[in-house]
Amino acid sequence: MKEQRWGNIGSKYAHLISAHPCYSEKAHFTVARIHLPVAPRCNIQCNYCVRKLDKCEHRPGVASGIIKPREALERVEKAVKDIPGLRVVGIAGPGESLANEETFETLKLVHEEFPDLIKCVASNGLLLSEKVEQLKSVGVTSVTATINAVNPHTGAKVYSWVRYGDKRYMGEEGAELLIRKQFEGVKKASENGLIVKVNTVLIPEINFEEIKDIAKKAAESGAVLMNIIPLIPLHKFKDSRPPECDELMMARTVAEEYIPQFRLCRQCRADAVGVPGSEPCGSPVQRRTSEYYHA
Q1: Domains, the chain, ranges and CATH?
Q2: pLDDT band (50, 70, 90) for residue 293
Q3: Is residue 114 within 8 Å of 145, Cβ to Cβ?
Q4: What does the pLDDT look like over 82-128, one tens digit per residue?
Q5: Mean pLDDT calculated for residue range 184-204
Q6: What is the pTM (predicted TM-score) of this model?
Q7: What is the DSSP string of 79-134?
């Protein structure tokens, strides 16, 4: 599979992109990363998400346990000794990274001890515009924001509620707030030197027709890469079907007109460690789509 074409991103980020297994297809099979499960709380409820403490289930939102910042640093110290190819430290939940102060405490500790490791976070984007400077101060260079809609009517089908400040917003009001803050965050992060990737969960009957608009707006806001991933049917979408392989391929083809696509995502756990390309896919839809694209 050929490497992504990065357009006019320039050489400023080349060394970071080429060394990150969630940005570079080559690094996906050669570079190890570690996710630190220090962020249990979330400020939105996605209708496909079930956060869970579990040792076996392989998907986002799952970790075997929540650890404290000092424990996380110790885990990194051990991983650096045990895994020669470790280059990336990330925080991807199992809740919302930016809604937990432990995220920043952890990254500060890790950055002080291992300044050369790449630091990244995964976020729903609600607080991203407000946390950019804090992220930079603890060494973060890349952010993944999950954006599933541009239309609040669509968003209201994807999200049950959004908590911002001291208020919980429901329906289209919550979706409108979230979507506005997401793209505002992508724009501010990219303008301040962070590399931004946008994840989109493809839910066939909900946001398939909106993929083009998400891709276009993500690119216009400064994102450099998009990762369209299949729905894992859970929670309120437990009876919904995941996308077929041709639907996933079609969505990526349409989106690629506006922004490069990453096609190797393993939808990994919040405590994953190792080389992503050497790990098995966890869910049936993950295995099916992986086999299809890597055959």
Answers
A1: 11-294 (3.20.20.70)
A2: very low
A3: no
A4: 998 899 999 999 999 999 999 999 999 999 999 999 999 999 999 99
A5: 97
A6: 0.90
A7: HHHH-TTEEEEEE--BS-GGG-HHHHHHHHHHHHH-TTSEEEEEE-STTHHHHHHH
Helix (H, G, I), strand (E, B) or coil at 189: helix
In whole angstroms, what is the distance from residue 104 CA to residue 240 CA? 36
Q: Are strands 32-35 and 86-91 parallel, antiparallel or unpaired?
A: parallel
* Rounded Cα distance, 120 and 227, in Å: 16
How far, CA to CA in Å, does 45 sit from each of 19, 107, 132, 173?
32, 25, 23, 14
Pairing of strands 273-274, 32-35: antiparallel
φ/ψ of residue 276, rounded to 5: -55, -40
Nearest to 77 by CA among 30, 36, 128: 36
Give me the mean pLDDT over the 64-89 stretch.
95
189 to each of 119, 126, 128, 129, how far by Cα in Å? 14, 12, 7, 7
Judge whether 182 and 217 are in contact, CB under 8 Å. no
Q: What is the rounded average pLDDT of the residues 160-179? A: 97
Q: Which residues touch 47 (CB under 8 Å, ≥6 apart)?
A: 157, 158, 159, 160, 235, 236, 237
Measured CA to CA, the distance from residue 6 to residue 17 in angstroms comes to: 10
Q: Are 240 and 278 in contact (CB under 8 A)?
A: no
Could you tell me if residue 267 is left (phi over 0), alpha (psi between -120 and 50 degrees) or otherwise beta?
A: left
Task: Give the Cα separation of 32 and 83 in Å (integer).
Answer: 7
In order of 61, 62, 67, 226, 256, the CA distances from 270 in angstroms are: 6, 6, 11, 20, 28
Report which of residues 267 and 113 the model is more confident about: 113
Q: What are the backbone dihedrals phi and psi of residue 257, each rounded to the nearest 5 degrees, phi first?
A: -65, -25
Q: What stretch of H or E contains 226?
A: strand 225-230
